[in-house]
Amino acid sequence: MHRIREGVRLNLQAFVRTPLNLVLAIVLPLVVIEGWGQAMAGLPSMPTVEAIPLDLGRMLGAVFGVAIIAGLLGLVQMIHARSADRRLIQAGFPARTLLATRLLMLTVVAVAVAALNFGVLHVLIDPEAPLVAFAALALAGIVYAFVGALVGAIVPRLFEGSLVVVFLAMMDAFLSGDSPLAADVPDFVEFFPLYHPKAALESAALEGTIATGEFAFVAGYLVVLLALVTTVFTLTMQTSGRWAA
Amino acid sequence: MTRTLTALGIGLREQVRNRVLVALLVVLPFAFITLAFAVTQDVEMPVRTLVDGETASVMRPMPDVHGVIMTPITSALIAGLAGLFVMRTASVDGRLAVAGYRAREVIAARFGILAAITLLVTGVSVGVMWLDFVPENPLWFAAAMVLLSLIYGMLGILLGAVVDRLAGLWIMLIVPMLDIGLFQDPLFVQSEPDWWMRLLPGYHPVRVLVDAGLTGTVDSAASIGWGLAYLLVVTVAAVVAFYRVSGIHQ
After folding, report:
1. Closest partner residue to B173 among A35, A68, A171, by Cβ?
2. Interchain CB contact of B35 with A (< 8 Å)
3. Probe site for chain A from B35, B85, B166 (most A CB atoms < 10 A)
4. What is the distance in angstroms between the Cα of A163 and the nearest Cα belonging to chain B?
């Protein structure tokens, strides 16, 4: 337990040491919230196309902004520390403990980014059930942080990994994001990372209800992601056998 | 010249040998653009563009309009990321200078690699778009695509010189999405764009893309000139940044 706490502390320290990252983690989603809201609301209404309300647009922007910040952070964290992690494992540090510190740190930062964004969202709109809405936003961030970590464990190169995360996030935002442009959205979109957190946020903010089904789905999604990240990480961090090189 | 070509050839071979990267550069634009066409509602929408030199609203099928926007987002994003990573490997180029390469040879080789990736991605993106939608003026459209992607590639290099990789990734994802996908999208911005939208990298190329893609005559040719001027400025800035960061001047 002490090792995990120390690991999280060190990871957080390394993140906070770059003030620009902190500033961007706050500023970029704010720009996305307002930009997304204004753009979506500006779409001209046609018989089968309706501009979505400004507040809903802002919510979608918040979900996407938090998710992408967390997703890329997860990716960079995993790749950046790869060789150091391998050395630690070589020195006898358990791979799972190492991964736990990394994922806990990602969770802390994702929740912090979600909290800041939720603060702004709260100023712009008046959510019916604020705490539940915040939980949904934080879950969107955590899910993408884990997705980023998974991609980072599978594709340990930053350019390739970032391409995967970026395009997944864009498709996710377009298909799961209630875009008035999209019509025949395929059924598999339900399995996109943002689909259920976004639905949970909407019901909490607009109707004041706790969408238990959506939250349960996100919880299951996180468990599956956790299992995948753990498997891939332990496999690729083996100090002997075919993955050792 | 021979030494530049040698360095360029080695750099290109290095990229081509990376099968995962090559596959992603082809598969991702294909998936994203095809999906954008497949799910967009097939209805006519008003689009703000230039007609006979005047800004006017014309009705066009929404998938076409969406394709005209999603295609450049794809290539600009990838070119921007490529620029960012060209700069991330700039420190290695200092070794070429130690081995006797002149600064301009190293810069030409490294920027040549970025240009090659940009052209590949632009070609793939336009090719994929072609399956669902053929622009009214293909040559103008292609020229504006290359221009936009090069601008973002150079901006990627600049970013790579100024910020660390995490910050660079965040900015390089969010800026093209907001710039091209929201602030220059003629579906979302129906009135004249605000002054600050005109300063964004996507303003001039996207004007040409919308005009050349959706109308019979190209009235926005001057925007290519402005776009080239924008490209020149960011290229000079990127070269200076690369020169200083890579250590090839020492």
Report:
1. A68
2. yes
3. B166
4. 7
- What the block records as the tokens of B210 is 């919308």
Say whether residue B222 is in contact with chain A using an 8 A CB cutoff: no
What's the average model confidence in pLDDT over B34-43?
83
pLDDT in tens, A113-149: 899 889 888 888 888 899 999 999 999 999 999 999 9
**Rounded to an integer, what distance in angstroms lies between the CA atom of residue B87 and that of residue B151?**
15
Which residues does chain A have within 8 Å of residue B185's beta carbon, measured at their own beta carbons?
Answer: 39
Q: In this predicted model, what pLDDT tens digit does every residue of A16-45 receive, in sequence order?
A: 777 777 777 778 878 888 888 888 777 777
Q: Phi-psi bin for B247: left (phi > 0), alpha (psi -120 to 50), beta?
A: left
Q: If contacts are CB pairs under 8 Å, which of residues 39-68 in chain A contact chain B?
A: 39-40, 42-44, 46-49, 65, 68
Whole-prediction pTM? 0.86
**Test the A interface: residue of B188, B189, B196 with most A CBs within 10 Å:** B188
Between the CA of residue A26 and those of A115, A205, B159, B175, what are the distances in Å? Answer: 10, 21, 19, 15
ipTM, two decimals = 0.80
| B5: Cα within 13 Å, side-chain hemisphere | 2
CB A180 within 8 A of CB B38: no
Q: Is B27 on the interface with A (CB under 8 A)?
A: no
Show the domain range for A232: 2-236
Mean per-residue pLDDT for B153-170? 87
Task: Give the gap in angstroms from C-alpha B215 to the nearest C-alpha of chain A.
Answer: 20
- Nearest chain A alpha carbon to B26: A163
A181: contact with B, CB 8 A cutoff: yes
Predicted local distance difference test score (pLDDT) of residue A91: 82
The count of structural domains within chain A is 1
pLDDT confidence of residue A221:
95
> How far apart are the CA of B85 and the nearest CA of chain A, in angstroms?
7
B118: three-class secondary structure by DSSP: helix
pLDDT in tens, A58-110: 888 899 889 988 998 889 888 887 878 888 888 888 888 888 888 888 898 89
Residue A245 has pLDDT above 60, yes or no: no
Task: Tell me the domain boundaries of chain B.
Answer: 2-246
Distances from the Cα of B205 to the Cα of A43, B58, B127, B149, B179, angstroms:
22, 19, 18, 9, 11
Does any domain span residue A81?
yes
Intra-chain end-to-end CA distance of chain B, in Å: 21
CB contact under 8 A, B167 and A185: no
Span A183-194, average pLDDT: 83
Match 């299951």 to its residue by tokens. Answer: A220
Name the one residue in this structure whose structure tokens are 């490997």: B89
